[in-house]
Specification:
Layout (H helix, E strand, L loop, with lengths): L1 E8 L5 H15 L5 E9 L2 E11 L2 H9 L1 H14 L2 E7 L4
Antiparallel strand pairs: 1-3, 1-4, 2-3
Helix pairs in contact: 1-3
Length: about 100
């Protein structure tokens, strides 16, 4: 299992567009056969920060996600172009 958190920071004026792009990306990503979980969250006390919790069956499933047309269009061509900051935390399950 591959699990990680992506933290993205956007300008306040990007909030509505960012939310719609994330909705589309989550919907498409959840249809991938190797996607276990794809859940975007808005940080309660910082609405310009988004945290996405992602899980994939294996590294091949993650690679397929990153190569997908929807990821390339919505993440690489959309979110990544408008974000101000990005951080990734890789996770290891305890049990």
């Amino acid at each position: 299992m591959v699990s990680f958190i992506v933290r993205l920071k956007f300008a306040a004026e990007e909030r509505a567009d960012m939310a719609e792009t994330l909705r589309q990306l989550a919907e498409a990503s959840r249809q991938e056969p190797g996607c276990v979980s794809y859940i975007p969250h808005q940080v309660e006390d910082d609405p310009d920060t988004v945290v996405i919790y992602e899980q994939y069956k294996d590294q091949e499933s993650l690679a397929a996600h990153r190569a997908s047309a929807h990821f390339q269009k919505l993440a690489v061509g959309g979110l990544y172009q408008r974000m101000r900051e990005r951080a990734v935390e890789n996770l290891t399950a305890i049990f």
